[in-house]
């Protein structure tokens, strides 16, 4: 092999290595409203090298942005406990991942909290991210509806969230049962779900989360 050919094949290998290294590694974090997704993600990032992206937080930020074209649509979907059309959510997630990786190329591991919530979300993810990001597994916070409702009502006393009230919550629980559970079941069939008993207290839940992450990396 001459020097030029050698150099060219080395470059190919290096660019392949680079692409692999840079490909976002994603854990989807799912569970009912108030199951503790956000709380546990905040704890995970303190102990493991993950970046936490909450789809709900990104949507609320976009809703609050002064020039947002989607603000009022997002606002009404959230109050109604409905799932925002995926074009909006996926763009926010993609941008957040790109910006994180642009700032620091070592930050390619993401916890995506509260997404995908329905078939539309999952199809949108596949359409936009297939081949561009790897979904390593799903962390499923399994919590009874009663505990979820109590936690959200408690949170509602100080969260300022427009959907932490009984009326919105009943709709959110319905959406979760009808639309999100089937997504979790789909991943379960692929053997990709780690289920955590999320009705326990915060530290007990986190101890179980750690067991999963220490094994999965
Ligand atoms: N939401 C959405 N798509 C998403 C994530 C959230 O439409 O991918 C909307 C939906 O209306 C949901 C609300 O945002 O009920 C709040 O979501 P969040 O994940 O913040 O609530 P949590 O489940 O953490 O209580
Ligand atoms: Mg949340």
Write up this protein:
This protein is of the alpha/beta class and 217 residues long. The protein has nine helices and five strands, in the order αβαβαααβαβααβα. The chain has one domain (17-208): 3-Layer(aba) Sandwich (Rossmann fold), CATH 3.40.50.300. Strands 2-3-1-4-5 form a five-stranded parallel β-sheet, with helices on both faces. α2 crosses α9, α3 (55-64) packs across α4 and α7 packs across α8 (166-189). The chain is globular, with a radius of gyration of 19 Å. The mean pLDDT is 93. Bound molecules: uridine-5'-diphosphate and magnesium ion. Uridine-5'-diphosphate (UDP) binds at residues 33-34, 37-38, 54-56, 59, 77-78, 81-84, 89, 114-115, 117, 121, 163, 172.
Notable features of this structure?
single chain, 217 residues, alpha/beta, Rossmann fold, five-stranded parallel beta sheet, binds uridine-5'-diphosphate, binds magnesium ion
- Mean residue pLDDT: 93
Whole-angstrom Rg = 19 Å
Question: How far is the N terminus from the C terminus?
Answer: 40 Å
Gross CATH architecture: 3-Layer(aba) Sandwich
Describe the sheet with the most strands: 5 strands, parallel
Strand-residue proportion: 5-15%
**Can you give the helix content as a percent range?**
55-70%
CATH topology: Rossmann fold
Number of helices: 9
Order of strands across the biggest sheet?
2-3-1-4-5
The global form is globular
Per CATH, the superfamily is P-loop containing nucleotide triphosphate hydrolases
Ligand kinds: uridine-5'-diphosphate, magnesium ion
């Amino acid at each position: 092999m001459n020097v030029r050919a050698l150099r060219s094949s080395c470059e190919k290998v290096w660019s392949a290595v680079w692409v692999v290294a840079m490909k976002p590694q994603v854990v989807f974090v799912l569970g009912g409203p108030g199951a503790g997704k956000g709380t546990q993600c905040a704890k995970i990032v303190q102990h493991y090298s993950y970046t936490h992206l909450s789809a709900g937080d990104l949507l609320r930020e976009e809703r609050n942005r002064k020039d947002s074209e989607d603000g009022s649509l997002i606002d009404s979907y959230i109050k109604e406990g409905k799932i925002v059309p995926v074009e909006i959510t996926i763009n926010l997630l993609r941008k957040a991942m790109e910006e994180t990786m642009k700032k620091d190329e070592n930050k390619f591991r993401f916890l995506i909290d509260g997404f995908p919530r329905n078939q539309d979300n999952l199809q949108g993810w596949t359409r936009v991210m297939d081949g561009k990001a790897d979904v390593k597994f799903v962390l499923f916070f399994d919590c009874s509806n009663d505990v979820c409702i109590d936690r959200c009502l408690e949170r509602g006393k100080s969260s300022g969230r427009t959907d932490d009230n009984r009326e919105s919550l009943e709709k959110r629980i319905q959406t979760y049962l009808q639309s999100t559970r089937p997504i979790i079941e789909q991943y379960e069939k692929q053997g990709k779900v780690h289920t955590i008993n999320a009705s326990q207290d915060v530290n007990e839940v986190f101890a179980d989360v750690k067991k999963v992450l220490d094994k999965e990396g």
